[in-house]
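Justification of computing resources. Each target in the renewal requires a structure prediction run like the one illustrated here; the chain below, 129 residues long, is used simply to show the kind of job we budget for.
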Amino acid sequence: RWRPFLLDTYKTAVRLGAASLYVLTVGGKPAAFSCNYVFGGSEFGLRMGYDARLRDTGPGTVLLHRMLKFAFASDQHTFDLGEGDSDYKHLWRTQAMPSYRFCHYAKTSLRAQALRLKRHWLGEVTSNL
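Resulting structure tokens:
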């Protein structure tokens, strides 16, 4: 469901020169990857993954080390590890910053209004601006 959206936005970012793709290979075969957005000296981690068969060798760790080294050797001042609070991020980050989400729910869409009410009921909505 999200794959087409991410593919379209990443293609646009590539076309605008606002994307980076890192691939770590072992023996000529992909072992880990990271797709990111890049703009104005900042890089935002979109998706990362690695070959589970190589888990014990730490391909994700090696790739992340190389990405950070490359990013800060260039003109980047910020590398956002992306959404979520995975344990590995605690080992690499210098600070955690709050992020905010703004949602618009079309008044004429019953489905959108049901989602708005659900989020409100679950306490996910902190304001009704």
